[in-house]
Amino acid sequence: MTDALTLTPREAFEMLLAGNERFVSGTPEHPNQDAARRAEIAPAQKPFAVLFGCSDSRLAAEIIFDRGLGDLFVVRTAGHVTGPEVLGSIEYGVGVLDCPLVVVLGHDACGAVAAARAAVEDGASAPGYVRDVIERVTPSVLAARSGGLTEDGDIIAEHTRHTVNLLLDRSRVLADRMAAGRAAVVGLSYRLADGSAHLVTTRGLEVTVDSAS
Q1: Whole-number Å distance between alpha carbons of 15 and 61
Q2: Which residue, 40, 47, 62, 102, is the most exposed by fewest CB within 10 angstroms?
Q3: Residue 56 belongs to a domain with what CATH number?
Q4: E strand or H helix at 199, and its extent?
Q5: What one-character-per-residue DSSP string does 135-151 give?
Q6: Tally of domains in the chain
């Protein structure tokens, strides 16, 4: 079993990307998905990454990163918007389960971002608590507009960066872990058509950001 306590943030990141590469190439290994793994982790979990992503049904984390039971501590909301429950869940993954990596996963054709953009540009609104989701995405759309960004991909990348910064600004647990070199936070953008995940931003991990993302 992969023990998160033996992995550095970089090793965890490389393991995650390797799984995505297998998924994209059509050669998944489906690790840790059998009865033996189920029995092995029943007493305790030791995931190697916290994955905070959009609730979109096309972003099943263990599938697109070719992982299995006990590998990822997954938190998902529409538009990966944050709140106390999200922050508490991420802090549990980092502070209690000792995950060395936190991933914010955005994606193209995000409905929450599109709705926020429509609200900014056309004044469109939504009923119920969907409006609250849109309002939490709106600052990212406004920041993108103020920076001259108009393409959907650029706006989605800005929202991913905004979420990464928000997590570190609001969570002292996460910020302290990163400062100590025990955790890193990365933002990825997932492409629905080909299944690839591309790096948008990183904090606490020195890697090259894909300019095409």
Answers
A1: 14
A2: 40
A3: 3.40.1050.10
A4: strand 197-203
A5: HHHHHHHHHHHHTT--S
A6: 1
Number of other CB atoms surrounding residue 122 within 10 Å: 8
Is residue 203 within 8 A of residue 168, CB to CB? The reply is yes
CB neighbours of 128 closer than 8 A, spacing ≥ 6?
none
pLDDT in tens, 60-89: 999 999 999 999 999 999 999 999 999 999
Is 208 inside a domain boundary? no
- Mean pLDDT over 134-163 rounds to 94
Confidence of residue 155 (pLDDT cuts 50, 70, 90): very high
Residue 158 lies in a domain: yes
Tell whether 28 is covered by a domain: yes
Contact 12, 49 (CB under 8 A): yes
Other Cβ atoms within 10 Å of 129 Cβ, number: 9
* Full residue range of the structural domain in which residue 58 is found: 4-203
CA separation, residue 100 to residues 6, 35, 50, 64, 182 (Å): 9, 26, 8, 20, 6
Q: Give the residue with greater pLDDT, 63 vs 152.
A: 63
Listed in sequence order, the DSSP H helices in 60-171 are 61-64, 84-91, 111-122, 130-146, 152-170
Amino acid at 107: H
